[in-house]
Amino acid sequence: MTKAHRIVGRGRIDASRPVHFTFNGVEYQGYRGDTLASALMANGVHLVGRSFKYHRPRGILGAGSEEPNALVGVTHGQGRFEPNTRATMLEIYPGLATRSQNHWPSLKWDVGAINDALYMLFSAGFYYKTFMWPKAFWTKVYEPFIRRAAGLGTAPFEPDPDSYASRFAHCDILVVGGGPAGIAAALAAGRAGAKVILVDEHADLGGSLLSETDATIAGLTGQQWLDEALAALADLPNVTLLSRTTAIGYYHENFVGLCERITDHLEHSSVGTPRERLWKVRAGQVVLAQGSIERPLVFDGNDRPGVMLAGAARTYLNRYGVTVGERAVVVTSHDSAWLAAFDMAKAGVKVEAIVDLRSDPSVDLQERARVLGIQILVGWTVTGTRGRLRIKSVRVCPVDLGGDAHILSCDVLLMCGGWTPSLHLFSHSMGKLRWDESEQRFLPGDHVEASRTVGAGNGSFGLAAALAEGDQAGAAAARELGYDSAPATYQVNGEFALSGRYFNELPTDRNPGKAKAFVDFQNDVTAKDIRLAVREGFRSIEHVKRYTTNGMATDQGKTSNMNGLAIAADAVGRPMPEVGLTTFRPPYTPTTFGAFAGYARNGLFEVTRKTPIDQWAESEGAIFEPVSLWRRAWYFPKAGETMHAAVARECAAVRSSIGMFDASTLGKIEVVGPDAAEFMNRLYTNPWTKLAPGRCKYGLLLGEDGFIRDDGVIGRLAQDRFHVTTTTGGAARVLNMMEDYLQTEWPDLKVWLTSTTEQWAVIALNGPNSRKLLEPLVEGIDLSDEQLPHMAVAEGSICGIPTRLFRVSFTGERGYEVNVPARYGRAVWETLYESGQEYGIVAYGTETMHVLRAEKGYIIIGQDTDGTLTPNDAGLGWTIGKTKPDFVGKRSLARPDMLKDDRKQLVGLLTSDPTVILEEGAQIVFDPDQPIPMRMVGHVTSSYWSESLGRSIALAVIEAGSRRIGEVVHIPMPDRTHAAVISQTVFFDPQNSRINA
Amino acid sequence: MLLIRCPYCNAERPEVEFVYAGEAHIVRPVDPSQTDDDQWRDHLYVRNNARGLHFERWRHIHGCARFFNALRDTVSDKFVTTYKAGLPRPRIEDIKESM
Ligand SMILES: [Zn+2]
């Protein structure tokens, strides 16, 4: 069976290397150099899948990356399943396992094909019309259906075991497309000395030369010339050749993304070899030689397996030595299909007829066909096909519908509706398309980037034109970059001048309303769907596209956009350029997420910041939580201890004796300079001028809009030096804001800003025994309450290490924050921990820190504030320096909205049932009996169990909350509604007596 | 990816080294308390949102960390010119002549 469809010795496959692979569990043989598509057709297999919407049997349409039909699932070994791979691009290797998609239970007998019979239900806009009502059907019926139908293949569910690489590259000239135009451009630029990268998406460079049989270049056959040209390029050290590499996107200023496929075609690859590599190329000049894509013809039954593009059939024959059928009919409106027919006939395929829609194809071509004994039907059309899983016959009749229809038997129908210049990358680069009225096609207009388009992509069809344009463009690009280049001449003989015409739906003597004439094969969009969309009022091609889904599948309409546009324009009754082409967007072909991610996976995708004390916490069994990029110890459970019990124990230790806490993640900024105090005055709400060196202050930072942005204790170390702390997550934002004002609003201030977050390890000691623990370890600082009172800072040493010692408290207890250089953080921590055993010291995590601060009503920026709270709203009006003329945000605090008396304000909440811990984020209402939707008057911002108080506590923002102390509010939850009394925000030790205890 | 010339480094660098920082030449009033509510609202919130040439601020965040100003075309995305913070707005006519 194999031999019948394979002409051994023809094409570029390696006949000495047979390759066994499977498709749907059946083993087949191909050769090294085959794609899955060529190898299957060599085995007589055309049926490779079912269509998306109607589950119609589908075969292989093309031979390149534009393929809409032949999508398969591929297993490249354990965990390496990939859906929707184009069989036309997939190179086979021994053991390759592939399977078809979108059918059940089998490819040949598929239950979903019932959709084909329900054709009328699924016409244009069927999603919008069908899934409207009843509402209850959404979750149970419609959504599962849409989700199942929303993709073709099945996504893999295992983590991707492969690695992916990425790299930057810079070159003088990037040439996209390794056909004759691209090769000529690379030769011209490379010989001129320019640094050139030439890329092509196929396994072999050569493009149309790989299947060229007629023309000669300088007396050589196309393939001989190609081999010589590639050898010449390989000899140039300044030229890089990349095959299996797709230019996926063309971005600003000649930045082009390339995806190189490295291992998918290999049976074995060495461990560590990346599967794909993303090249990020910045080129001085770009030459686009993407070629053109053959256009299908639109007629009833044009999607049956065995109906394929004529140029693709020619490629399979000449490049792979595969005859796609034994009995072919050719239908075309372009000369190129005649050449395919001639090659097929010469290779022994019975060509039943050439059906040309035009009345006047070239006499020369007709004469050649006659010599080969091929029946010619000039001015005829195709009106239908038959055959369930493979075409069996085609019905033809004269275009003027004036004669009888004939039925022609065949097993392949080769079609050609002309060629569409490939403008994708040019369009990515924001280049505007130009309408070529005489040839009825879009061409590149003015180039926005330093680039040129050559060859078929520029509308210059044919080998001689491609070589000449490529050479000129390569030379011109090199000259622009300062290289001397000499033009080359390529003597091309034996080439036909090819031309053609474009048709919409082919003329038919049958009822066009019943025709299933496909435009978009992958999304199952017919010509009728497009006309229906226009009838229903859609005029813009962008709307027609979205309503019909034409061109929206994974092939992005490479074979369907122009037919869709032509039919839509005809239906609208306006010229094509007025209806417009839809936008091309990167990537050019489907690209793996792995390629985009590259090395940026796991820890290289998002770093985990760890403090110097992190490893100690880990060894002590801490449970961690992420806080911005940091991981912080959340709580330290003893064996068998619940989180609740651990937090209660940690809280009790701080209140009764001493606890220690790793506060190293606090943002820290050193503000230095003769104008440092003035800078702080202008930035923070507080007055700083009178703060004496050695003293600290709670600083509040607003945005210019008057809303709270950040806070932290700020120590003045000297007249001209402030140690600013910020929230853990806000450090970078605060520094950015400081830099912004300093650089752009007040450049006259002599101030320098330095981020010191990671320079200091910070150990917070809290509890009545904290001073006792510190005293024997600290030198050079008098720890007495007179010399180092609450809100003071001093420099000295601890355990022999220099320290900035802050007397501050975020718990309400006597507290110290020991700052030591980061590299000594762990040693000092461990010393303190050991010395603290005498007092029963306990390490506590962020959860206990949160509880303790909430008991004192200290806010957490971003938890108790949300970007809409002013200082007064948060009960922090006292921080504002009343005599300061200005600070960031001050003017906004006087805006009318900020002075309204019903603003939401921060208050405490005590639930009527003291065991109820409210949910953070829960909404609050005044009247629980009002109808739904209720008027929400605020929400819970913080909520905890307080071990010290033996009950739950919460913070909340509530409309005019500060005027409502003592009132009862309600928190409706799914199971029941909770009542709570509004209270002050300080729940514990309101006299602040413990700060000096 | 755009190339951006930092006027402080005097070097053209890829866009990933920079961050956008809003419209340029919005000067904070010397004494905001002297502005009325409408003026202050405009200062805070009202922006040009130009289609075409747009004066805007950028920061060379992964380079010299300086804020600078730029004239950029929001249609083509491309930078027309960049200049140091504090310098006056260049006249578009002058730039067009030199282009
Ligand atoms: Zn810079």
Q: How would you describe the overall organization of this protein?
A:
Chain A is built from 24 helices and 51 strands. Chain A is an alpha+beta fold. Among the domains of chain A are: 2-118, 2Fe-2S iron-sulphur cluster binding domain, sarcosine oxidase, alpha subunit, N-terminal domain (Ubiquitin-like (UB roll)); 164-292 and 421-493, FAD/NAD(P)-binding domain; 296-417, FAD/NAD(P)-binding domain, CATH 3.50.50; 666-756 and 873-893, Alpha-Beta Plaits, CATH 3.30.70; 900-996, Elongation Factor Tu (Ef-tu), domain 3 (Beta Barrel). In chain A, strands 8, 9, 12, 13, 14, 15 and 28 form a 7-stranded mixed β-sheet that branches. Chain B is globular. In chain B, strands 3-4-5-6 form a 4-stranded antiparallel β-sheet, with no helix packed on it. In chain B, strands 1-2 form a two-stranded antiparallel ribbon. The A-B interface holds A 251-253, 255, 280, 282, 430, 448, 704-705, 736, 739-740, 743-745, 747, 885-886, 890-892, 894-896 and B 1-3, 14-15, 21, 28, 31-33, 35, 37, 40-41, 44, 57, 59, 65-67, 76-78, 85-86. Chain A: Keywords: Oxidoreductase.
Chart the SSEs and their pairings:
The complex is a heterodimer of chains A (about 1000) and B (about 100).
Chain A: H1 2-5, E1 14-23, E2 26-32, H2 36-42, E3 49-50, E4 57-58, E5 71-75, E6 81-86, E7 97-99, H3 114-117, H4 126-130, H5 137-149, E8 164-176, H6 180-191, E9 196-199, E10 216-217, E11 220-221, H7 222-235, E12 239-242, E13 245-251, E14 255-261, E15 276-288, E16 292-294, E17 307-309, H8 310-320, E18 327-332, H9 336-346, E19 350-356, H10 363-371, E20 375-378, E21 380-386, E22 393-398, E23 406-409, E24 412-416, E25 419-421, H11 424-428, E26 433-436, E27 441-444, E28 451-453, H12 463-480, E29 492-493, E30 518-520, E31 525-526, H13 527-535, H14 541-548, H15 561-572, H16 576-579, H17 593-597, H18 614-619, E32 623-627, E33 630-635, H19 643-656, E34 659-662, E35 667-672, H20 676-683, E36 695-702, E37 708-718, E38 721-726, H21 731-745, E39 752-755, E40 760-766, H22 770-774, E41 778-779, E42 792-798, E43 801-807, E44 815-821, H23 825-836, E45 842-843, H24 846-855, E46 904-911, E47 923-924, E48 938-946, E49 951-959, E50 968-972, E51 977-983
Parallel strand pairs in A: 1-7, 8-9, 8-15, 9-12, 15-28, 17-24, 18-19, 18-24, 19-20, 34-45
Antiparallel strand pairs in A: 1-2, 3-4, 5-6, 5-7, 10-11, 10-29, 13-14, 14-15, 16-25, 21-22, 22-23, 26-27, 30-31, 32-33, 34-40, 35-38, 35-39, 36-37, 37-38, 40-44, 41-42, 42-43, 43-44, 46-49, 46-51, 47-48, 48-49, 50-51
Helix pairs in contact in A: 6-7, 6-12, 8-9, 13-14, 13-15, 19-24
Chain B: E1 3-6, E2 11-14, E3 19-23, H1 37-45, E4 53-59, E5 67-73, E6 79-84, H2 92-98
Antiparallel strand pairs in B: 1-2, 3-4, 4-5, 5-6
The structure holds zinc ion (ZN).
